Amino acid sequence: MGSVSLKIGDGTARFKRASVCSSAVNLLMLFSVIITNIFAFYAFTYSPKELHHHHNPKDISLISEKVSIILREIESSKKKLAQMEKDLLGFDTIDLSKPNIPNELKIFLDHHELPLGKDSRTGITEMVASVGHSCGKSEDLLSQYMNYKVNGLCPDDWSLGQKLILRGCEPLPRRRCFAKTIPKVGLQSFPPSLWKNVSEKIYSWSGIKCKNLSCLNSKKLNRDCAGCFDIVNGYETQRYVKTRGKNDFLIDDVLAMGSGGIRVGFDIGGGSGTFAARMAERNVTVVTGTLNIDAPFNEFIAARGIFPLYLSLDHRFPFYDNVFDLVHAGNGLDVGARPEKLEFLMFDIDRILRAGGLFWLDNFYCSNEDKKKDLTRLIERFGYKKLKWIVGEKINGSGKSEVYLSAVLQKPVRVRL
């Protein structure tokens, strides 16, 4: 498996726009490097007549001293530019020499020599820890996360780990402790498990305000999950098989658009797993990517007999290229006012979707006209065929109209030149 070194800055990258000030400083530093290099070139190539005739040692010493000064300035400029680049990328390293760094974190981040020396196939000589470089920005939280008793029970701190993930510290470092176990009693067999509730005692409620499903169903956890834990009597029983508006697509209609058939899919931000459940009824395997934001989404999805993937959108999807027949996403695709982040995300969706596969954008909320235009332009850049494209309005709880976009898009076959 590949690995990422925290020290060299690989991992889960974060980007932020460079300000006008920082850009100006960059140009100034670049100009400084160019000027110092010109002076250095001049100093090395200039040969005064007096030097040829008299070979004055003092003149030679003076030139040598000036060249040394110029070289030191060049080296200093290079270091400043490298630091500015790190600052612009938001990258910080973890200083393992600090006294408050737990020993477990030091052991994990240390390079470990391969027991048999250099690997003949990969050429590597040591194993390097795979940790998101943004972990360096949350040193205190990371130290708290890695402070535990080796070979003992892990602290009940899953919410701390999730907080680190949401700050871009992904992947998290591995730990040498045993995770808290909760007896999973009363689980139903598959497929009846898709639409049956089980005991609430099988879920972990630590770090969550609600302590039961009734509480969760009384709240709008996000735009795609309002009462989504009621899989017996709620609207979840009708989703994708009955429509409430023109933006709602029937699952059988979408499956009929699939070229070569739909067998495996990926659902981004899939709520309580109802999309994957509907697909499972049609013999389609769907992986549901989600976090546990205000609810035990992963445990609930697993209890239904569906595959949950604990993953944030800052992480590169852990799938190989061109493997999925369908990718489904709703408002879990929303990354706020970060167009460059959405662009990275769209390229990763395109990467894992096979040619001829479907990208189903389901009731994506367009907070304003600019957001809708930006998303539309981005999608059009990929050259997808629009099999279905609906922009519609819905009335929210306060009586205001909101614009939503739903679409089924087909990935084209791209020929490399």
UniProtKB/TrEMBL annotation:
Keywords: Glycoprotein, Membrane, Methyltransferase, Signal-anchor, Transferase, Transmembrane, Transmembrane helix. The chain crosses the membrane at residues 24-44. It comes from the Eukaryota. It is found in: Endomembrane system; Membrane. It is a single-pass membrane protein; Single-pass type II membrane protein. Signal peptide: none annotated. InterPro entries: Prob_Methyltransferase (IPR053223), Put_SAM_MeTrfase (IPR004159), SAM-dependent_MTases_sf (IPR029063). One of its GO terms (cellular component) is membrane. Gene3D superfamilies: Vaccinia Virus protein VP39. The keyword Glycoprotein applies. One of its GO terms (molecular function) is methyltransferase activity. GO terms for biological process: methylation. The keyword Glycoprotein applies. Belongs to the methyltransferase superfamily. This is S-adenosyl-L-methionine-dependent methyltransferase.
